[in-house]
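Hi R.,

Quick one: here's the Tol-Pal system protein TolR sequence you asked about.
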Amino acid sequence: MTIALRRHRKRKLKAEINVVPYIDVMLVLLIIFMVTAPLLNLGVDVDLPQSNAKSIQEKKDPVIVTVDRDGNYFLAVEAGRNEAVTREELLARIRAMVAQNPQLPVFVAGDATASYQRVYDAMQVLQEAEVDRVGLMSNPEQGRGR
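And here's the predicted structure, written out as tokens:
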């Protein structure tokens, strides 16, 4: 009888899950991600003025604010010629235009050699003038046809 009780005890099933293999796999994955994460944060060279995007079709000519490489602002209204303006003049004129038409589309055309900060400053002026729609202009890439 004692032999039967001993065999019965050995055959009893455990209701616990062995999580050691899962922990091992998790630690291996953690090490892999820790090694590869710094490699994914490398800088990328970007040439912003080139684009393959289709041009936006507007019913009315938009206002174009041009920024040259020296940081000077030029304003073109309804396909007019570019007029050199100061920051304050640009702010006042754009505010007046936005007061008449709140949905006025404004594009910023930055020189390819202009610093990003100067283009960003022009966008800040437009934000102060409460312009809702601002776009960046670019030249299409030459030699690539679709």
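The chain has four helices and seven strands.

Cheers,
M.
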